[in-house]
Amino acid sequence: MLRLLITIPFLLALIVFSAGNQDSIQMWFLDWGWKSSVGVLTLIVAAFFFALGALSLWFAELRQRGRARRAEQQIRTLEEQIAELRRQQAETFNPPAVPPPAPPAAPYREVLPR
């Protein structure tokens, strides 16, 4: 939302500036020369830098997506390891139910009075 509050007034000012400056000027770049209005030149420069900014954001986004993909794969691997360790722990601390062996029969001992 804050981005829109900054972008919309800037774009409106750019459009008003372009509409108000229709005077043609002569421009040169090395051996090339051309005539264009200041407003059109302003819009062309703004569009160029907008595209440059979008391209740089796209490259940063690609790097971020790669990192996110690797992190998600690592999370899946770690969750599988946790599940395996929990299964092993359950088998170790809760062995299968085996009936306890019957106590050995004690030999009959006669208790003599004293």
TrEMBL record:
Pfam families referenced in this protein's UniProt entry, alphabetically: LapA_dom
Regions of compositional bias (Pro residues) in chain numbering: 96-106
Protein's recorded name: LapA family protein
Species, as recorded: Gluconacetobacter johannae
Coiled-coil stretches noted in the UniProt entry, renumbered to this chain: 61-91
Residue ranges of domain Lipopolysaccharide assembly protein A in the record: 21-82
Statement: the UniProt record of this protein carries the keyword Cytoplasm: no
Record keyword Cell membrane present: yes
Bilayer-spanning residue ranges: 38-60
GO cellular component: plasma membrane
Region annotation (Disordered) ranges: 91-114
Keywords: Cell membrane, Coiled coil, Membrane, Transmembrane, Transmembrane helix
Recorded superkingdom: Bacteria
